[in-house]
Amino acid sequence: MNFISTMVLALAMSTDAFAASVGKGAALQNPRISEALRTGIIFGVIEAITPLIGWGLGSIAAEFVADWDHWIAFGLLLGLGSLMIRNGLRAEKAEATPVVRHSFWLLAATGFATSIDAMAVGVSLAFIDNNILITSAAIGLMTLLMVTLGVMIGRLVGKAVGKRAEILGGLALMGVGATILYEHLTM
Question: What torsion do the CA atoms of 112, 80, 73, 109 make, to the nearest 10 degrees?
Answer without folding.
Answer: 10
